[in-house]
Amino acid sequence: MNPFLVFLRDFIVYLIICVSALILFVMSKSSALCQGCQSRFYDGYNQHEHIQKAPAAPPTEFVYERLPDKRRSMRLLNLFSSSPENPQIECKLVVVDIETRCSLGKEYEALSWCWGTVQPTSYINIRKNGRIYSKKVQPDLLAALKALRHPQEDRYLWIDAICINQADIGERNHQVEMMSTIYGQAKRV
5: which of 21, 36, 68, 121 lies 20 to 30 Å off by Cα? Predict the structure, then answer.
């Protein structure tokens, strides 16, 4: 066999091995797990809130805190990134002032959800003060959150069925008054 062809074959095999090793290295870095709680983190922040692994049964029921007295406060749902195979939805509710939400550093998307008569039989996990709480949601809302969840980056959403305390009539009425502003400032509705 021609020495040049042997050299060329060996060189191509070497290149394939090097490129494969590089791809494996990059893939291993993009799926880094927190050593403390084994959760994925892609937000790029140095701080990572360690949490306990979500149990099979729902944790303690989530209780809303009152919104600040500011006239323009609202909650945004920080939907944490996760692989599509993860059946759990993990998120955090972040209180922002609608006028200065730029301090959050993220844009949000708005989603109106039917409050209807379908009973909330599914649940999502909400992180609060280093603990996990459950919030009951309708099964189709759970499916929508799974479809909206990114595998590698958090997503900020305003979903009326979650971001408004539906049990607090005063808050609900006030938030409904703000909906035109909430939808108007959203990146996408």
Answer: 21
